[in-house]
Amino acid sequence: MFYNEHMFEIKCNLTTKEKLEILADAAKYDVACTSSGVDRKGRKGFLGNSEACGVCHSFGADGRCISLLKVLFTNHCVYDCKYCVNRCSNDVPRASFEPDELCQLVIEFYKRNYIEGLFLSSGVLKNPSYTMEKICETLLLLRTKYRFNGYIHVKAIPGAPDELLSKAGYLADRVSVNLELPTSDSLSKLAPNKNFKNILEPMEKITGTIAANRLSVGKDARMERSSINKYLTGSIFNSANNSRYGSLSGKNRTALESGTGLSLPAVSGNTGMNRAFAPAGQSTQMIIGATPETDLTLIRTTQHLYQNYDLKRVFYSAYIPLNEDSALPELDAEIPLLREHRLYQADWLLRYYGFQADELLSENRPNFNEYLDPKCDWAVRHLGQFPVEIQTASYDMLLRIPGVGPKSAKRIVQTRKYARLDFDTLKKMGVVLKRAHYFITCNGKMMYKIPINENYITACLMGDNQKENWEIKHQNQQYQQLSLF
After folding, report:
1. pLDDT tens digits, residue range 96-117?
2. Among candidate residues 142, 167, 138, 137, the one with its CA nearest the CA of residue 47
3. Which residue ranges form the domains of the chain, and what is each CATH number?
4. Where do the Radical SAM core domain residues begin and end (predicted)?
5. Using an 8 Å Cβ cutoff, are 286 and 199 in contact?
6. DSSP bridge pairs for 441
7. CB of 312 closer than 8 Å to CB of 342
8. How many alpha carbons lie under 13 Å from residue 298 in its C-beta half-sphere?
9. Which neighbouring-strand residues pair with 74?
């Protein structure tokens, strides 16, 4: 059902500050805590640059907090997604920016060193085509009239024409299309105006265009990944069987294998600048906790998206009860912050540690133990593979030991060529022995005499994580943004 935008009272003659208060608050449910993935130095005649070390409430390697202006173009929306605070059936204050008004806001904040870039999303005003046209107009003004050279992340609107999606990709650094929910059944139940076909088609075309653009300048079709993945035999990015779980859209081909037929039309000449298409790649977001999918379903979907759509990141957003509806959890339901945290850790294991989704979980145990990090949870369920001898274990196996990361695993491999390791040396290398000592031996000896028993080790690890788990679960459960006032 489409609701008339005048069904509820709409505030007119709002000041820019009043619009910003409404639209920045409405944007806080879009997740974008990530590094930008783009290094771009300042250019003569342009304003700003882009640093790959991070954006939007992230911390760079030097400790700097780097932030974006995260805002909606408008919170008017013709859709009635049950989980969304901006759905058309909600009586909430509504506002919209004018393209030039938003550009001036970005530039003024940038000049005052409040922000280093823009994260722009939007409700669907009138229809997807109209909304995307307004977003593209804003980005074009920023890049040409205001000569803004900083980082821009834009949310593409499914259902918009290919020409507008292409234009947005050439003007922005990163483009994202929200998957919203991990299964088509859940999407049809909670977002009756949306469907997987309309979401996955633009996602696939964006992937194909990024690949074609990279090939045209002599790069590999896939986005760059950490060098860690080059040495992992089981990495999901170099696995031969990338379509193991089939396609979410019901097709067997992937965007990287389908040729130029799934690319967007080239419109770089219309941007007024010679720019690459979405150089920081593509991302998406899934809501967790609003529907009954298991963690296994979520990480299988995540793995498929990384393999077949070459996404740079998949974000998880813990469902916050905002609307009263029989299809949703109760308003007093607990926000699954700890579950969200575990899914991000599992996502890291998929991308950097050589794990596959069906290794981390199974049909018999489809959910993570929320009180253990996923690597520890996997290890205690596979004690037959432990303890591992540090002196002889392969690099891949070292990465599967709780408390051992890529840097410490590389140091172990390099150091043991000319020296025998002991537990003190491992600690100096960065190995977290309070977790690792349950699973390793040094020269045939464990650090302590402990039983290799799942229940015993699980209880010990949960005790070690108790403080951290409590802090995550009981943190202020209100999504907040950096105050601009």
Report:
1. 999 999 999 999 989 888 788 8
2. 142
3. 16-285 (3.20.20), 374-473 (no CATH)
4. 72-206
5. no
6. 389
7. no
8. 30
9. 96
For residue 247 the two structure tokens come to 């396609």
Backbone angles phi, psi at 96, to 5 degrees: -145, 140
pLDDT of residue 394: 94
Chain-centroid distance of CA 21 in Å reads: 25
> Which SS3 state, helix, strand or coil, does residue 94 take?
coil
| Distance from C-alpha of 206 to C-alpha of 156, rounded to nearest angstrom | 10
Helix count and strand count (H, E) for the chain = 16, 10
pTM: 0.85
Residue 54 is predicted with a pLDDT of 31
Structure tokens at 380: 């205690």
* Percent of the chain predicted with pLDDT > 90: 64
For residues 287 and 335, give the distance between their C-alpha atoms in angstroms, rounded to a whole number: 11
Instruction: Tell me the CB-side half-sphere exposure of residue 400, using CA atoms within 13 A.
Output: 25
Torsion of CA 235, 185, 71, 33, to 10 degrees: -20
Asked if 299 contacts 210 with a C-beta cutoff of 8 angstroms, the reply is no
Q: Are 295 and 342 in contact (CB under 8 A)?
A: yes
- What pLDDT digit, counting tens, does each position of 112-149 carry? 887 888 999 999 999 999 999 999 999 999 999 999 98
